[in-house]
Amino acid sequence: MPPDNDSEPLTTLHYMPGTCALGVHIALEWAGAPYEARRLSQEDLHSPDYLALNPAGVVPTLIQDGAVMTEASAILLALARQVPGLGPGPDAGEHDRFRFERLIIYLGGTLHPHFWPWFVPQRYGAAHEPDQANVKQAAEALIGRALTWLDGELGDGPFFLGARPSAVDAYFFPMGRWGYGLKTPTSEYPNLHGLMQRLAQDPGVAAAMTAQGLPPLSADT
Q1: Of 34, 105, 143, 179, whose CB has the highest number of CB atoms within 10 Å?
Q2: In angstroms, how far is the first alpha carbon of the chain from the final one?
Q3: CB-based contacts of 112: which residues, under 8 Å, 6+ apart?
């Protein structure tokens, strides 16, 4: 939630709209503590001030009580330790904690990187349009495998950890949103599509989307 005007936020999220930082933004909404969200431009990512915080020049960057945190997966794992409702909970067994951490790391280490060549094929040596089309096709195949696995992991849900949303669902949301632009879109994965529709109705998700200036998901997306 945004901070009160009379209070100084101890948590600041640096983000660009629609990136994986949206997952952290959603998690902060669910956490319920005051925070400030600072929107960055592409130029801001390469400014000396921002590179001093995040030398990789990417988002998200989260600052809590002066401590700088980067990498969405690591940030979400840290938030889940602070706010039990974002993770499997203090009474969860070792298997449930492992599955939670595995899903967070899978989203950050497998699914998210598969999208990079789809978004920017020229970064992968594809200078010409036919080459870019081949790179994007290969990326879509990898994304499809990952979404198929996640669709099975989610099952009949309703959320990845069961009856309530967690940091896993928050992290998947921006990637599921990207997936609607694929030739085999997110809507072709019934469990994931249902999850996206449920999350789209969540007040915290709606607040983060509105803050970032993103249009809501439609019922037939």
Answers
A1: 179
A2: 27
A3: 20, 72, 175
Give the C-alpha separation, 191 to 147, whole Å: 10
Mean pLDDT of 22-40: 97
* Token pair in block for residue 87: 């993770």
Q: What pLDDT does 154 receive?
A: 98
Return the exposure string of 80-103: e unless at least 16 CB atoms fall within 10 Å of the residue's CB, then b.
beebeebbbeeeeeeeeeebbbeb
Asked whether the bond before 130 is cis by omega within 30 degrees of 0, the reply is: no
Predicted local confidence at residue 4, as pLDDT? 56
Cross-strand partners of 36: 12
The pLDDT-based confidence of 1 (bands split at 50, 70, 90) is: low
Residues in the chain: 221
Task: Kindly report the pTM of this predicted structure.
Answer: 0.94
Tell me 7's DSSP state: S
Quick: pLDDT tens for 44-77. 999 999 999 999 999 999 999 999 999 999 999 9
DSSP, residue by residue, 102-122: HHHHHIIIIIHHHHHHHH-GG
